[in-house]
Amino acid sequence: MAAASRATLQQALVQGLLSRRMVKRAELEHLYAELCSALGLRSALDEDLAEIQPRVAAVGLDVRTCHDPINATPYIVLMNAKADTLAEVATPYSPSELQYIKALIDAIFHAPDHRFSVPSTQALQLASNMQPPMTKHAANELLHSLEHRGWLVLSRRTGAYSLSLRALMELDTYLRNDMEECVLESRPTAMARFIRHAKARTVLGTRIAGNAPSHGTHGR
C-alpha cells in the first residue's frame, strides 16, 4: 500500500513538473508536503526527485536545480536534455518565428557594454531586418508569447528585454554551441555584468542524480 502511494506521489510530482517546467523549490515543497499529508507518507522530496530522474530521462528530460544568482532563490527545473538546436527546444514556433528568436537572442548576447538586454524598440526593429521581413505586429505578438512562456523578462524601468533564468536553463545546450564566445566562464567581468542585467547564467544548473548507487549529484 505504501509503495503504491509513493508511486502515486511520484507520478503527481512528474505531472506537476511537466505542467510547470520551472518552479521555486519553496513552492514545490509546499505542494509536495500537502500531497504527502493527503497520502499519509513521510516527506522525502530529494529522494523522490532522484527516483523520478530515470523516468524523465527515458523521454529526453532532466530534473535540475538552479539558483537565481541575484537573490539565491532555489528552483527546480524540468528541461529538455537532448535538444541541441533552437528548433528542438522552441517546438511551438514556425521557421520564421525561430529565425526571429535566434536574431533576438544574438542581439541580447551581443548587446553593447555586456548589458545582455535589448530595448523593446530594437527588438521590434529586428523584425524588419529579417528575410522575408516579419511585421512589427507579428513580432510584438511573438515577444508577448515569449514573455508568457517565461523566456523573456521585460524591465519596466528600462523597457528592455533580457533572457530569463528559465530560458537560460532550457536553451543551455543551444547557447553553449552557438554563443560560446559569450558564455565562456573565463570571462568573469562579462559574466558578472550578465548576472546583474540578465539575472541568470547558463552555468548554474545542477543535475539531480538518479537512483543508481554509483552516481552523485554533479554539475554540468
TrEMBL record:
<comment type="subunit">
    <text>Component of the Smc5-Smc6 complex.</text>
</comment>
<keyword id="KW-0233">DNA recombination</keyword>
<dbReference type="GO" id="GO:0061630">
    <property type="term" value="F:ubiquitin protein ligase activity"/>
</dbReference>
<keyword id="KW-0227">DNA damage</keyword>
<dbReference type="InterPro" id="IPR011513">
    <property type="entry name" value="Nse1"/>
</dbReference>
<keyword id="KW-0479">Metal-binding</keyword>
<dbReference type="Pfam" id="PF07574">
    <property type="entry name" value="SMC_Nse1"/>
</dbReference>
<keyword id="KW-0234">DNA repair</keyword>
<dbReference type="GO" id="GO:0008270">
    <property type="term" value="F:zinc ion binding"/>
</dbReference>
<keyword id="KW-0539">Nucleus</keyword>
<protein>
    <recommendedName>
        <fullName>Non-structural maintenance of chromosomes element 1 homolog</fullName>
        <ecNumber>2.3.2.27</ecNumber>
    </recommendedName>
</protein>
<keyword id="KW-0862">Zinc</keyword>
<keyword id="KW-0863">Zinc-finger</keyword>
<dbReference type="InterPro" id="IPR036388">
    <property type="entry name" value="WH-like_DNA-bd_sf"/>
</dbReference>
<comment type="similarity">
    <text>Belongs to the NSE1 family.</text>
</comment>
<comment type="function">
    <text>Acts in a DNA repair pathway for removal of UV-induced DNA damage that is distinct from classical nucleotide excision repair and in repair of ionizing radiation damage. Functions in homologous recombination repair of DNA double strand breaks and in recovery of stalled replication forks.</text>
</comment>
<keyword id="KW-0808">Transferase</keyword>
<dbReference type="GO" id="GO:0000724">
    <property type="term" value="P:double-strand break repair via homologous recombination"/>
</dbReference>
<keyword id="KW-0833">Ubl conjugation pathway</keyword>
<dbReference type="GO" id="GO:0005634">
    <property type="term" value="C:nucleus"/>
</dbReference>
<dbReference type="GO" id="GO:0030915">
    <property type="term" value="C:Smc5-Smc6 complex"/>
</dbReference>
